[in-house]
Design brief:
This protein is 0% helix and 48% strand. The chain has strands at 3-7, 10-12, 18-25, 34-39, 46-51, 58-60, 68-73, 78-83, 92-98, 108-112. The radius of gyration is 13 Å and the shape is globular.
Amino acid sequence: QVQLVESGGGWVQPGGSLRLSCAASGFTFNFYAMRWYRQAPGREREMVASITASGDSTNYADSVKGRFTISRDSAKNTVYLQMNSLKPEDTAVYYCRRSNGVIWGQGTQVTVSS
């Protein structure tokens, strides 16, 4: 079965960094683009970053461009989100998902506060 396990979240002060991981299984990982989403309290879920199946192209929401970097490791079936210069408005539960996906993982909480 498709399984997505996000990890790496936590609490950081503004300006800090975190690296999130998403371990994928149950499908051919390198056939699919992968995406990171986030959902803050009282707000709709939004796409934060995406990466093509080959890893040769990425896309970011304007709110995180220049601060976040998405990458993938085919050998580990894992997609990463490096988050730098974190802001309080980045506080949310972060999820990963494959393109055309149906299944969501449990998410990982990121809290940015002083």
